[in-house]
């Protein structure tokens, strides 16, 4: 590092450079994928240019908000898509803005499975899943209770179509200019609904054994790798999480099976949610850890969930993660890496505006350090 600020960064583990395959990252503070529900009619909007470029640093890795891969994949209002030409075109200026500032930008590709209802489905059809077991009503961040229609269990013949939708979404992401994709295999959405034994009740080759439950996820990985190249593919997994009634009786075995299988594909990174994030919003002390999975995985390992500055530095020093993803802190602090560098105070996030649709409020109006009185 040539400059003075650079020398200082060497002392802060999170701010040391890291080479992720072909990507030279200048630090390890990653923007976690954050759904913001401001892509009206599933089309990314120009206000996202400012939002993402605010959070871009030269050589920093950003993961875009979960992005819907097809017309059956949506479960929340105004989440962006990447299956139509219009959506791909709308992403381009956003990706260009991130690249103009030297950022590395991955798209998180997403199918919600049964976390949907007829309002979001083509022709009001039932949502699809690994199962026909309904999801219990869920309480949203704003306190509203979301109800779900019982899903329709995918037949074996339909599964290749969904795998193909992930492949096409990855191709579209590259067409839009993204550097790669993160397959959303976490948080109780479709891929997780196949992996977790408390949801998946199939008796065919996609249910039962670990090998069978992980087959769908790994078919998607293979298809996406074949389409865009392994060096552009990451995956997010949350074996320990219970969101959306998606629980597994042996999360360590599930996580280990997945990372060992992923090793065969040589993907860029595996992104795992810390076991302490048993629910979406709270941290719990727990004896489990990701260390076994981190050790077993041969690529870049990214950890996320409940990290602060000290904790993230510790994870890097102790070699428990190569990269650390920050969600709520990065949402509220567009200049988070800079604040970590200076050990500056942080803005507090406002939960009430996480998912509101205003193009500015709670979105691009969190102050930078220079502007904080
Ligand atoms: C507003 C909001 C939106 C989120 N959207 C996504 C998403 O689109 N995809 C995803 O994998 N996780 C999503 N998450 C989870 C975050 O990426 C992250 O894992 C979680 O907030 C825990 O990390 P943190 O303690 O650093 O915030 C979201 C979280 C929040 C607060």
From TrEMBL:
GO MF annotation terms: 12-oxophytodienoate reductase activity; FMN binding
SUPFAM superfamilies: FMN-linked oxidoreductases (SSF51395)
Protein origin, superkingdom: Eukaryota
Keyword annotations: Flavoprotein, FMN, NADP, Oxidoreductase
Catalytic reaction annotation: (1S,2S)-OPC-8 + NADP(+) = (9S,13S,15Z)-12-oxophyto-10,15-dienoate + NADPH + H(+)
Alphabetized CDD domains for the sequence: OYE_like_FMN
Required co-factors: FMN
Pathway: Lipid metabolism; oxylipin biosynthesis
EC number: 1.3.1.42
Keyword Nucleotide-binding: no
EC category: oxidoreductase
Family per record: Belongs to the NADH:flavin oxidoreductase/NADH oxidase family.
Protein's name in the database: 12-oxophytodienoate reductase
Organism: Anisodus acutangulus
Taxonomic lineage: Eukaryota, Viridiplantae, Streptophyta, Embryophyta, Tracheophyta
């Amino acid at each position: 590092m040539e400059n003075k600020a650079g020398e200082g960064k060497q002392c802060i583990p999170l701010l040391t450079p890291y080479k992720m395959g072909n990507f030279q990252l200048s630090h390890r503070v990653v923007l976690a994928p954050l759904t913001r529900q401001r892509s009206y009619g599933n089309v990314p909007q120009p206000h996202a240019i400012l939002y993402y470029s605010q959070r871009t640093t030269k050589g920093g890795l950003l993961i875009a908000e979960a992005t819907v891969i097809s017309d059956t994949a949506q479960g929340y209002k105004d989440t962006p898509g990447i299956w139509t030409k219009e959506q791909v075109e709308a992403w381009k200026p956003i990706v260009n803005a991130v690249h103009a500032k030297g950022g590395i930008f991955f798209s998180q590709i997403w199918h919600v499975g049964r976390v949907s209802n007829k309002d979001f489905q083509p022709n009001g059809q039932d949502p699809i899943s690994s199962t026909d077991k309904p999801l219990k009503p869920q309480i949203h961040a704003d306190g509203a209770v979301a109800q779900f229609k019982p899903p329709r269990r995918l037949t074996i013949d339909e599964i290749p179509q969904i795998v193909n939708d992930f492949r096409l979404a990855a191709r579209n992401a590259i067409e839009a200019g993204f550097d790669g994709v993160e397959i959303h295999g976490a948080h109780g959405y479709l891929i997780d609904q196949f992996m977790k034994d408390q949801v998946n009740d199939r008796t065919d080759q996609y249910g039962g054994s670990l090998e069978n439950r992980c087959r769908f996820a790994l078919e998607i990985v293979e298809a996406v790798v074949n389409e865009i190249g392994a060096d552009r593919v990451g995956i997010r997994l949350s074996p320990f999480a219970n969101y959306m009634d998606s629980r597994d009786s042996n999360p360590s075995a599930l996580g280990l099976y997945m990372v060992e299988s992923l090793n065969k594909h040589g993907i860029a990174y595996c992104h795992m949610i810390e076991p302490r994030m048993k629910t979406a919003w709270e941290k719990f002390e727990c004896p489990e850890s990701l260390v076994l999975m981190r050790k077993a995985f041969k690529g870049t390992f990214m950890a996320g969930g409940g990290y602060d500055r000290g904790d993230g530095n510790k994870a890097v020093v102790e070699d428990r993660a190569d990269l650390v993803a920050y969600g709520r802190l990065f949402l509220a602090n567009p200049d988070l890496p800079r604040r970590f560098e200076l050990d500056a105070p942080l803005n507090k996030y406002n939960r009430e505006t996480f998912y509101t649709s205003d193009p500015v409020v709670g979105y691009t109006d969190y102050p930078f350090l220079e502007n904080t009185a």
